[in-house]
Amino acid sequence: MIIFDTNILSIFAKIDNLNLLLRISNEMLIVPEVKREIIVPLEYGKDWPDKILSISKTIYVNEEEQKLFEKFLSETRRLGRGELQAIVVCKVRGYIFCSFDRVALNFARKVGVKCMNLYDVFREFLKSEILNRKELINLMREIEEKDNIKFKNIEKNL
Q: Could you tell me the CATH number of the domain that includes residue 91?
């Protein structure tokens, strides 16, 4: 199972392609703190959060996870609540944490969580034959255009 961070979900929602993530993970799982982060842009008239909320499933933390979440909150100020809660759930349940945030990914790896970054997601699209190379390059260009992300050496990094 994969727990997606807000940044990955928002990227694919903005290009109206969340279905691609569902093809590498049977369910769109989010934690309550990520859900809170996703809801905020609705207050500013953005519509992409509704796309995520309509297909995602919120999984709630248990007592063990809540204690570890509070411990991590007290130990680090560099990560948001959404990232930390997702990392905790992944650690306790053995799930994969998927994020575009380098600091969050480094912390997750440090505490023993298996991770995927955005390039790993792209590689999985190719490996699973969800997209071919040309389709993936077009997808990456669309992400650059709609989400202000710049990929270095698109062809080289795949």
A: 3.40.50.1010
Bridge-based pairing of strands 28-30 and 56-58 is: parallel
Reported as a single tens digit per residue, the pLDDT across 105-138 is 999 999 999 999 999 999 999 999 999 999 999 9
Distance CA 5, CA 3 (A): 7
Contacts 24+ apart (CB under 8 A), 80-83: 80/33, 80/37, 81/33, 81/36, 81/37, 82/5, 82/6, 82/31, 82/33, 82/34, 82/36, 82/37, 83/5, 83/107
User: Residue 9: CB partners within 8 Å, gap ≥ 6?
Assistant: 18, 21, 28, 30, 34, 38, 52, 56
Supply the range of the domain harboring residue 97. Answer: 2-117
Q: Is the pTM for the entire model greater than 0.85?
A: yes
User: Which of 86, 84, 72 has its CA nearest to residue 9?
Assistant: 86
